[in-house]
Predict the structure of tRNA (guanine(9)-N(1))-methyltransferase.
Amino acid sequence: MSCWCRSCVSSSPVVICRNWNDLSRRRGLTLYHRAKSKLLPLPEPHLIPFTGFMGTDSAQNDENTPAACTAQTMSKNAQKRLLKQQRYEAKKAEKKAEMKEHKKREAERKRKEWQEKLESVGEEEREKLVEDRKELRRERMEKRCEEKGKKMERLQEARINGQNVVIDLEFAHLMTSNELHSLVQQIMYCYAINGRCALPAHLWLTGCQGEMQNQLLRVPGYDKWAIEKESQSYVEAFKDQKEKLVYLTADSENVLDELDPKAIYIIGGLVDRNRWKGITMNKANEQGIKTAKLPIGAYLKMSSSQVLTVNQVVEILLKFLETKDWKVSFFEVIPQRKRCEAGSENNEEEIEKKGINSEEKDAQSPEKQEEADNEDHEDGQSVGRLEGDIKRQCVEA
C-alpha cells in the first residue's frame, strides 16, 4: 500500500493513515486543538510515501488505495482500452500541435519570401506585383463564389428531381460519445461529397434529436446545409410513401441491381463496431419495409463482412448515379484494405457469367487490378488531406 506519513520534526511522532482523507482529517483536528489551546500551529507537514508494513497488514492496506480500487473495478481489457485511448489522445494532441506549428512556419516563410521579393525590385515593379497579387486573390474569390452558386443550384435541383437517400439517426442511444462523433464526421463527408457530384442526391436526416442533434448543431454551417432535417422517423416523414421505402442492409437476401428513381433508400446511421448485428434488418422487418443489399459479392470479395460506413454507402450510390456501373463504383469507393486479393479468380468467373465484353475483362487483369488498387490507395491517403476542405465546404454551404 502507499500510506502517507506526517512528520514535522524528528522528535515528533509519526502519524500513519490509511489514505489521504484520513490524513487530512487528523491534521485538521490537530490544528484545531492547538489553536484552541493557544499553541503555535504546526508548520506545513512534509508528506512522504510509506511503502507499508511487512506481513498481512500491507496486503490489506493495498486494497484500500484508490488505484487498487480502480484496478479491481476495471477488467484487464478495459484497462488496456483505457490506456490505448489515452495514448491515442496524447498522440492526436501532439500531432495537432505539430501541424499547427508547421502551418505557422510555412506562413512565416512565405511572408518573408514575399517581403524579400518586394525589397529586391524597384518601386514601379513593386506596385505591379502587389496589384497582380490582389487581382489573383479577387479572381480566386470570384471563382469560389461561382462554384458555390453552381453547387447550390445542383442541390436545389436534387431536392426536386434527385434520388432520395435517407440516413436513419434513431440509433443514437446505442452509441458512445466517440461513436456519435465518428457518425457526425461521416455525415459531414456525405454532405461534402454530395455537393461535389454532378448528379447529387436528395439527402435526408431523420430521427435527428437528442445528443445526435446537439453534436450536429456544433458543426459550423450546419444550419445552412441544403439537406432535409427531420426530428421524426422516416416512417412518419414518408407516411404516404411507405411502399417506396427500401432499407439498405447487408443482412438482406434481396440484391439491388438497379436504383429505382422513385424509391427512397434508407441507410442505418450506426457506428457500433459490430456490436448490434442484424439490428437494421430486424427493424425493417418489424416496420414492414422492403430491404435490399448492394451487389458487392458479384464484383469483388470482401476480406471481412460487407458492412460499410455510412459515407461509403452514400458515395457508392452517388457513383452509380453518375456512372451506372456497380463495379466502377465499388472499386473507386471501397478501400483496398477491405478487399480480398484471393478473390480475383472468383471475380473473373462472375464477370464471365454475366457476359461482360472483352474490354471489361481486360480491366480485370492483374495489371489493371494493381493500378486500380494503387489509385484507391492514393484516394485513401488523400482523405485526411480533404478533411479540411470538407469542413470549409460545410461552413460555406
